[in-house]
Amino acid sequence: MKKILFVLMAFISVNATAQKFSNPAKAIVDSIRLQQLQEVTVDGVRSRTTGTPRTTLYQRTLSNFASSGQELPFLFARTPGVMAWSENGLGTGTTYMRIRGAGDSRINVTIDGVPLNSPEDQCVFWANMNSYAALLNSVDIQRGVCSSTNGDGAFGGAISLQTKAPSRKAGGELSASYGAYNTYNLGGNFSTGLLWNHLIFDGAYHETNTDGYIHGTDGRSGSYYGGLTWLDDDFMIRYKNIGNFEKTGQAWNAVTAGDNDYSIMDGCLDDGTWSYNLPTGIKTYEDLYNAGLGRYNTLYETLTYGSNGNLFEKDADGNYVTHRWEMADGSYWPKTTDNFWQNHNILSLSYQITNNLSASASLHYTHGYGYYKEFRYHKKAGEKFGLSTNTKTDFVRKKGLEQDTYGMVGHLHYYDSRWNVVGGFSVQQFDGNHFGYITYIKDEALREQYLSNGDHKYYDSDARKFDGNIYVKGDYLLTHDWVTNGWYLTGDLQYRHVNYKTDGINDRFVQGTDGLWHNQTLNINEKYNFVNPKVGVKWHHETRSGRNNHTAFATVAMSHREPERNNFTDNYKYPNPKAEQVIDYELGYHYSTRNFYFDATLYYMDFKDQLVQTGELSDIGEKLTTNIAKSYRAGIELAANWRICKLLTLEGNAALSQNKIKDFDEMVEVDWTRNAATFHYDNSTLAYSPSAILNGMVHFNYKGLQATWHTNYVSRQYLDNTENKDRSLPAFSFSNLKFTYTSKVTKVSPLHEVVLGLQFNNLFDAHYATSGWVYSAILSGTHPNENRYYQMGFVPMAGRTAMANLTLRF
After folding, report:
1. Alpha carbon distance 427, 406 (integer Å)
2. Which residue segments constitute the domains of the chain, with CATH numbers given?
3. Which of 137, 271, 336, 508 measures 20 to 30 Å from 72, CA to CA?
4. Cα(92)–Cα(1) distance, rounded to whole angstroms?
5. C-alpha to C-alpha distance for 223 and 246, rounded to whole angstroms
6. What is the DSSP track for 152-217?
7. C-alpha distances in angstroms, 550 versus 597, 617, 644?
8. Where is 64: in which H helix or E strand?
9. 301-303 and 267-268: which strand pairing?
């Protein structure tokens, strides 16, 4: 692959040199036209209704970020109200994000208007999108209930990814980065330029490898792209194939500092001591780090039992001794890996019909297949796997899925001196299969019974989902001139129909009257019809010189969201979950001059039937979620940028919020019996919803040198909905520093630009955790914090790291 890439680069570089002497003025006009046609593909999903809080990231920012190997949420986390974290502590591989406290399943993501969210889980798995930043021209991040888009409902925000327009000029790029924990990123792209006045072929390949910060999270992931474009004066037909692959070590148990049955985070609050004679006061990730367990991963290793009166053994330096999980033949379990392959195919047409009318349509098909293998220590054979006995022994399970998604999206965009309107549609069909196998059993008798003829399949279920919508949205100018001054009315109306079906047997087991454990049977067929309206008003004023611009808006929007797969499969003890609803009130103001801008947005998001975890466990030990009647998210988002001079720019943003459940009943397990005690809370804080997220940046530019300082602060996060500080993550802050030097090659040469980069993350070596989990139970007593037992897991980020980069552009 790499040899082919270098040959292509050489060919393209010669082409590029020859094209330097073509008509530069015509090339600029043609490139602008090509970019306009490319932007037609995203007109349908990007906000055409005024009054949507948004941030747009452009190609230069995306290209600089791509060489880091980090997943896109870590770039988005520099914008208001967004936070990101990764399981391996470095920002690569398995990565998650939140907008306004709402998780991945509540964030709508599209690429060139095509939905990317997994229809069942409603998430985007960012590990399957490694180095996508290198493929993109821009990213539009909308917050709150956004304008109508394709795919799942946007409850926290919507992210529109736009791929680069194919280049009319032949050229290419090679990039290589290397840094801490043996992390490196390699990539390249090319374009043949315009062939026969109509055809462009372009492609790219990128991959990231890392040892990971957390033990056992080493992995490899990457993406490849191939495109074929037919271009005319007013239309463009483009086929894109975007593929992804990943094999990443997993750490979803987080840092728990114990094995699957025990944890040094076990504790009782009545006397302030912790179980198993281990250090007292271990309540934060920093405590774990100082105890020598900051990179500990229970999916990969376990603590060594000691013989000196302590449960776990320490070495001469006082650090806890670990060992790998041992198999029956004396070998060791290598690690738990997630393995996934995905391929997107998009055929799109963009047509500028007249100066005021444009249209686009896209056919798309995505195939995905993946699985993970996990070592399960000392588990009950019947309760966990449905075997004929409930003997405790060790297992290895392989859980996987195969899925196909296909559909069509399209829109028509009209604009003139008073109207700016988009109408569109989307239809999508999803077919998936979930399966699970037992591939290893330590107990010899069970191994002989179930694995003598190969792996034992212990669950198998199919799923189908249809998702279709039609929408119209736009602005109408009431007074004055469209560009400079006036009042606007804005509106957006979407109808969405969803039909979700799943059947078969699930990987959950219930004990029957015969004493045996039987698979949960799935037979779900739910239909939803949603009407999502949005109305608003906007005022805009611009001085004749263009030096001062004022914009103010007010909007009210409603959105709905269907339950995801787990809300059905894990919650059969409760009634079937209902769809969620939110009404979002937004009030905003924007002021800008040539060297300064300021944004402020006030919002109140009023939720009905929001699905949250109650703390109760199902009969099979799964955390149950249920609809709660009333909850809200309210806050203010601020952003500012001041270009002090050519050398120096200051930038910052802040998201300050309250995220509350108005009436919440916590269900707490009593004495590990699955019986639950109920405790009521008024106006408690929603889990994983920090009240403050701050970003500050200083940009320095001098000729080819750029330097950026970035500091991020995130306030306390509660791990459940009870607002208890002992079950929370402390506030944290970190700072990053990046240097980039760009040198133009002035001589006649295929190479025209060299970029050197040096990135330092977490400069002050802060020990902090970005996410986590908690399990709790009542040993005795009636008060929610009396004799409260709980376990906690932390998702830490690495200490100080560095990465260097070299990029060659032809």
Report:
1. 9
2. 2-252+334-809 (2.40.170.20)
3. 336
4. 23
5. 9
6. S--SSEEEEEEEPPPPSS-EEEEEEEEEGGGEEEEEEEEE---BTTTEEEEEEEEEEEE--SSTT-
7. 10, 52, 20
8. helix 59-66
9. unpaired
> What is the C-alpha separation between 426 and 119, in angstroms, rounded?
14
Element (H, E) at 450: helix 444-451
Which residue is listed with tokens 């195919």?
345
Q: For strands 517-542 and 485-511, give the pairing.
A: antiparallel
Tokens 């196909």: give the residue.
404
pLDDT tens digits, one per residue of 604-618: 999 999 888 776 655
Compute how many other C-beta atoms are within 10 angstroms of the C-beta atom of residue 60. 8
Mean pLDDT is lowest, of 7-11, 155-159, 594-598, for 7-11
What are the residues whose beta carbons fall under 8 Å from the beta carbon of 710, sequence distance 6 or more?
Answer: 78, 695, 696, 697, 735, 736, 737, 738
pTM of the model: 0.92
- Are 498 and 530 in contact by the 8 Å Cβ rule? The answer is yes
Task: Tell me how far apart the alpha carbons of residues 588 and 599 are, in angstroms, rounded to a whole number.
Answer: 7
Please state, in angstroms and rounded to a whole number, the distance separating the CA atoms of residues 98 and 121: 15
Which SS3 state, helix, strand or coil, does residue 702 take?
strand
H or E segment to which residue 437 belongs: strand 419-441
Residues 522, 511: Cα–Cα separation, whole Å = 16
Mean pLDDT of the region 773-793: 71
Q: Residue holding tokens 């801490």?
A: 180
User: Residue 348: enclosing H or E segment and its boundaries?
Assistant: strand 337-352
**Cα 510 to Cα 459: distance, rounded to the nearest angstrom:** 13
CA dihedral 40, 45, 48, 51 (to 10 degrees): -150
SS3 322: strand
Q: Which of 483, 588, 596 is closest to 547 using CA atoms?
A: 596
Cα separation, 582 vs 144, whole angstroms: 10
Q: Alpha carbon 344 to chain centroid distance?
A: 18
Tokens for 526, please give them.
């739910």
**714, 691 contact by CB (below 8 A):** no
Tokens of 284: 């934060």
User: What is the separation, in whole angstroms, between the first and last Cα of the chain?
Assistant: 19
Q: Work out the angle at residue 366's Cα, subtended by the Cα atoms of residues 360 and 370, and round it to the nearest 5 degrees.
A: 155
Coil/strand/helix, residue 89: coil
pLDDT of 306 over the 70 cut: no
Could you tell me which of 425, 583, 629, 522 has the C-alpha nearest to residue 120?
Answer: 522
Distance (Å, whole) CA 391 – CA 293: 31
Are 90 and 68 contacting, i.e. CB atoms less than 8 angstroms apart?
no
Distance CA 254, CA 718 (A): 16
As a whole number of angstroms, the distance between CA 275 and CA 284 comes to: 16
94-114: per-residue pLDDT in tens?
999 999 999 999 999 999 999
Q: Identify the helix (H) or strand (E) that includes residue 401.
A: strand 392-415
The partner residues of 177 in beta bridges, in order of sequence, read: 185, 805
